[in-house]
Amino acid sequence: CSAENGQCRCRNNMVGRQCNLVKSGYYRIDLDHYTYEAEAALLRQGCSVSERELPVGRPATWTGPGFALVPEGGVLEFQISNIPYSMEYEAVIRYEPKVIYSYEGLLYSLDHQGSATPFPYSPVQYHYMPLVSGMGHPYR
């Protein structure tokens, strides 16, 4: 950003002092435009839903009605079928472990790639994955 006036050099079609406004005639999708709730996923191998009431006086740390409880060896399967463009997407997995560092890690996989990759512990995790428009993507 400029030392004289504080104006930042914005990305293409972004404007404003903090580069947080979209230039007229353009559209920017919110990063969480597509949200898949774990409670609506296919729950397998001992997974269950735990609905939560919104906390009073502080923001919720979750979206949707609550959490999916996933025991060791449990599987959540999300059916992703509304991808508008074939490209790499950033998948954000939000989770809250019951006991921090009490497990080896999370594994995720896309069935059409047939691989599983570990997640180290962190309150929010993400990775890039190639998704093809018009093709269903089971995401576990």
Characterise this structure.
This protein folds into 2 domains: 1-30, no CATH class; 31-139, no CATH class. The chain is built from no helices and 11 strands. The protein is an all-beta fold. The radius of gyration is 19 Å and the shape is extended. A hairpin with a 5-residue loop joins strand 1 and strand 2.
Features:
mainly beta; Laminin_IV_B; Laminin IV type B domain-containing protein; secreted; basement membrane; two-stranded antiparallel ribbon; extracellular matrix; 3-stranded antiparallel sheet
Radius of gyration: 19 Å
Helix content: under 10%
Proportion of residues in β-strands: 35-45%
Rounded mean pLDDT score: 75
Largest sheet properties: 3 strands, antiparallel
Query: What's the β-strand tally?
Result: 11
Structural class: mainly beta
> Whole-Å distance between the termini?
41 Å
Strand arrangement across the biggest beta sheet: 3-6-11
Task: Estimate the global geometry from the Cα principal axes.
Answer: extended
As residue ranges, the low-confidence spans are 121-125
- How many domains? The number is 2
Order of helices and strands: EEEEEEEEEEE
Please tally the helical runs, counting DSSP H or I stretches of 4 or more residues: 0
Protein name: Laminin IV type B domain-containing protein
Subcellular location: Secreted, Extracellular space, Extracellular matrix, Basement membrane
Keywords: Basement membrane, Extracellular matrix, Secreted
GO cellular component, one term: basement membrane
Summarize the structure.
The chain has 140 residues and is an all-beta fold.
